[in-house]
Amino acid sequence: MLYLNIIQNIDQWVYNSLYVIYLITIIGTILVIISENRNPVKSIAWIVVLLFLPIVGIVFYFFFGQEYRRQHMISRKGKRKLQQLTEDPDVDLQEMPLSEESKQQIRLAYTLGKSGLHPGNEVTVFTNGKDKFASLIEDIKNAQTFIHLQYYIFANDRLGNTIKQLLIDKVKEGVIVRVIYDDVGCWKVKQHFFDEMEAAGVDVRPFLKVTFPQLANKLNYRNHRKIVIIDGKIGYVGGMNIADRYQDGVAWGIWRDTHIRITGPAVYGLQTAFSIDWSFTTRELLSDNIYFPPVPRTGNINVQILTSGPIGEWKGISLSFLKAISNAKQHIYIQTPYFLPTESLMKALQVAALSKVDVRLMLPEKSDSPILQLASHSYLTSMLKAGIKIYFYQNGFLHAKSITIDNEFSTIGSTNLDFRSFDHNFEINAFMYSKELTTQMKNIFLDDQKKCRRITLNLWKKRPLWHKICESVVRLLSPVL
């Protein structure tokens, strides 16, 4: 009997000790979240998760919740060296035939991330994977000195193997080939796919490779960029990864996306972004002149290449979006697959619409992520009440990420209008200042609009009650999705 009492007392002591440790861990984590002084919405979302799902919440916070903004991707010396290689000393912003609003945006982007303006570019817009990859494959075949390729997803499928073999063939011709892929984005890809390229001489590196437990807490910070630079004279950037679905579509229709090909000095901006990511991954700075050759002006489009990510003081793309939206006087046309806006972005769009700016938001009718779609839908009522026109694309999956404002500004890149793109992902966008290109982008939007159904406030209010409840519940988690 005495023995049983001792065992029971020990069990009770162990239970009480574990319970105290558990409480201290939960309270300590909540205090850490509060002390970080991050966005209150995100802080509250994490606290709610910790309080209602404490064990799951601790694990999720360890993997997805920690901040890394105070870190640096590259030394100041390295960044200055790249800046000296890419800045155009002949650009006098005051003398350029641009609106004051555009000049303000250009100055802001430069202040935030030293993103210089590159005049004199030619830009080709692709709205489907078939045309984009046909062009890319041809450019890869014609490469003479180097190919730098970076994608969030590089799939081991028909298209992926076509690109892989082309890169291997170019190495055999003496072309330098470097590849960065995101380790999480390519989790479904067997390592031998990349090993084959490595064995053939392609320098292949995963971005923030997830190892346990050392880098498990960086699982949430992914490189979502899609960049190609060929010979320092041709560049690609946009929303398409390397996978068959970007060409072949999905079960419910086409894969509608937007990507651009750039020739001209703005390729320097893409090469700088790649060089910084390569330095972050390998500690090797690609600053030789071979990677920044003289590039003549080939067209009349002014381009800035903006990057952003969880590292660094400012959220460059998010703040530049806000500035562009705030400057709008006539129209704002937005295409995005996911719409989980920050409070500031939501208010900026509402203010623009209430000021009688023609604000139109296009989303997919059916998404590849039901959870993200539910969260996106929770924001639409307040958008509709402000007078924003909302369209659901019905011809397949809309994955395009573009904004067109008034008659001079448009942007295309990898950035979605959601918390993940603004706060957690490494993203890249081309900001373009051109009446000709803006007109083209506006016409693309209007053509896509013909394949949409418009959502009105009265129609939206009639959706099922259970749907509204699900949206509201998932919205609580939207800052951490």
Structure report:
It is built from 18 helices and 19 strands. The longest helix is centred in the first third of the chain and has 34 residues. 45% of the residues lie in helices and 20% in strands. It folds into three domains: 64 residues, no CATH class; 198 residues, Endonuclease Chain A (Endonuclease, Chain A); 165 residues, 2-Layer Sandwich (Endonuclease, Chain A), CATH 3.30.870. With 481 residues, it is of the alpha/beta class. The strands form three sheets. The chain has a 15-stranded mixed beta sheet with strand order 4-3-2-5-6-8-1-9-18-16-15-10-12-13-19, sandwiched between helices. It starts with a helix and ends in a 6-residue tail after the last helix.
Topology:
Blueprint: H1 2-35, H2 40-52, H3 54-65, H4 76-86, H5 100-113, E1 117-126, H6 129-141, E2 146-151, H7 158-172, E3 176-182, H8 191-199, E4 203-207, E5 227-230, E6 234-238, H9 245-248, E7 254-256, E8 259-263, H10 267-282, E9 301-308, H11 316-327, E10 331-335, E11 339-340, H12 343-354, E12 358-364, H13 370-377, H14 380-385, E13 389-393, E14 396-398, E15 402-405, E16 409-413, E17 417-418, H15 419-424, E18 427-433, H16 435-449, E19 452-455, H17 457-461, H18 465-475
Parallel strand pairs: 2-3, 3-4, 7-14, 10-12, 11-17, 12-13
Antiparallel strand pairs: 1-8, 1-9, 2-5, 5-6, 6-8, 9-18, 10-15, 13-19, 15-16, 16-18
Helix pairs in contact: 1-2, 2-3, 4-10, 5-11, 11-12, 13-18
